[in-house]
Amino acid sequence: MLLATCIVLLNLPLFPSLVIRDSRSEQLVWSSRIKNDATFGMRWTHSIHRSSIEELYRIEQGQIILSEMTFHDYGIGMENDLAPGEELIFQDGQFRVLHMNRVFPALHLITGQVRADHTLLFAGTQIPLRSLIEPGSAITIQAEKRSILSEIGGY
Predict the structure, then answer these.
(1) CA 29, CA 33: separation in Å to the nearest integer?
(2) Hey, is 7 helix, strand or coil?
(3) What's the CA gap between 136 and 141, in Å, rounded?
(4) What is the helix (H) or strand (E) element at residue 136, kind and residue range?
(5) How far apart are CA 128 and CA 74, in angstroms?
(6) CA 133/CA 151 separation, integer angstroms
């Protein structure tokens, strides 16, 4: 009975975390514990404009919410429809879409192979996704609660 109780406790999802998984195998690529209302960003180079794009996300109740986007060149492939309440401004030589509230249960992404150089911006660090997984890989970024066992075992 004690062993069964320990196993149950070790498997309880307790720790809110931001995780990156290989979309095909579901294998854990990266994770970090987060607090309520955590934020993170994603930066990459646009394939046509060859300029930097940065998105800012926040996590609320397990959902990922796109809250702001910054980019240098306005044109093909860039945001051109604003949702109610959103605002497009030009500031310090770049475009910013503010007051975004676009909700995603998870972000699905294929990491760039040529010039995109997708980079996770998290807790003051810049983590190039190519350092975590092979370029061209399909990944899923999501918030999930992890157990003690999953933290130890890395799954």
Answers:
(1) 14
(2) helix
(3) 15
(4) none
(5) 25
(6) 19
Reduced to 3 states (helix: H, G, I; strand: E, B; else coil), residue 147 is coil
Burial class (CB in 10 A: 0-12, 13-18, 19+), 120: buried
63-120 residue pLDDT tens: 999 999 998 876 665 666 889 999 999 999 999 999 999 999 999 999 987 778 899 9
pLDDT, one tens digit per residue, over 78-94 is 666 889 999 999 999 99
**pTM of the entire predicted model:** 0.86
Rounded to whole angstroms, the Cα distance separating 152 from 41 reads 26
HEC sequence for 47-86: CCCCCEEEEEEEEECCEEEEEEEEECCCCCCCCCCCCCCC
CA-based nearest residue to 9, from 145, 148, 155: 148
Rounded Cα gap, residues 135 and 76, in angstroms? 24
Distance CA 108, CA 114 (A): 19
Measured distance CA(54)–CA(88) in Å, rounded: 14
